[in-house]
Amino acid sequence: MTQASHDIPLLEVRNVTRRFGALLAVNDVSFTVRQGEVLGIAGPNGSGKSTLFNVITGIPFPPSAGEVLLAGQPIHQMRPHQISRAGVLRTFQKDAEFATLSAFENVYASAVYCGQMSRDAAQAAARQALADVALPQERHGQAASNLSVFERKQLMIASAIAGRPKVLLLDEPAAGLTKPEISGLSNLIHTVHGRGVTILLIEHVLPLLLKVSHHLMVLNQGAVIAAGAPQDVVRSPQVVEAYLGKRGAEL
Ligand SMILES: Nc1ncnc2c1ncn2[C@@H]1O[C@H](COP(=O)(O)OP(=O)(O)OP(=O)(O)O)[C@@H](O)[C@H]1O
Ligand SMILES: [Mg+2]
Question: What's the CA-to-centroid distance between 184 and ligand 2, angstroms?
Answer without folding.
Answer: 22
